[in-house]
Amino acid sequence: MKTMIAAILFLIFLSLAATHIYWGLGGKSGKAASIPTKADGKPTIKPGKIDCFVVAAGLLLFGVFILIRSGVVSVRLPGWLFNYGIWAIAALFFLRAIGEFKYIGFFKKIKTTAFAKMDTMYYSPLCLLIAVLSVILNIIN
């Protein structure tokens, strides 16, 4: 079960990283609905290519850490990193699922934009799934 959860999480992180790399290389598909917008349709942030690559690198690191933590990949890391790293990943994605109460997360106020609809249907539930699977993986390890 541990290996299956790790594989699922790794594939999620790998897919998300690949998407961000695609956007960093100039890809446009799906990008518009992935950026929070105000009610008037103006984006709340304007991520550049470097931002996309930084996010992709972080997601890849999360995926590799999951493989290491689950024992699929053998790398010696400090004990504190094993104890707290996966909790940090879980907390990060849980907080993302909750959101900042205006544009992002389950409790957002702006709910009619393209991003808000995708966030409600896909992004926030995916973040919650990542958080829950990370906690389960840490508990069974």
Strand percentage: under 5%
How many beta strands in the DSSP annotation?
A: 0
Question: What coarse outline follows from CA principal-axis ratios?
Answer: globular
Low-pLDDT parts are: none
Average predicted confidence as pLDDT: 95
Judged by helices, strands and strand pairing, the structural class is mainly alpha
- What's the SSE pattern? HHHH
Total of DSSP H or I helical runs spanning 4+ residues? 4
Largest sheet, in brief, is: none
Percentage of residues assigned to helices: 55-70%
Keywords:
mainly alpha; single chain; 141 residues; globular
Structure in words:
The protein has helices at residues 2-24, 49-70, 79-98, 114-140. It is an all-alpha fold and 141 residues long. The N and C termini lie close together (10 Å). The mean pLDDT is 95.
Please specify the SSE layout and strand pairing.
Layout: H1 2-24, H2 49-70, H3 79-98, H4 114-140
Give the gist of this structure:
The protein has 141 residues and is mainly α. The chain has 4 helices and no strands.
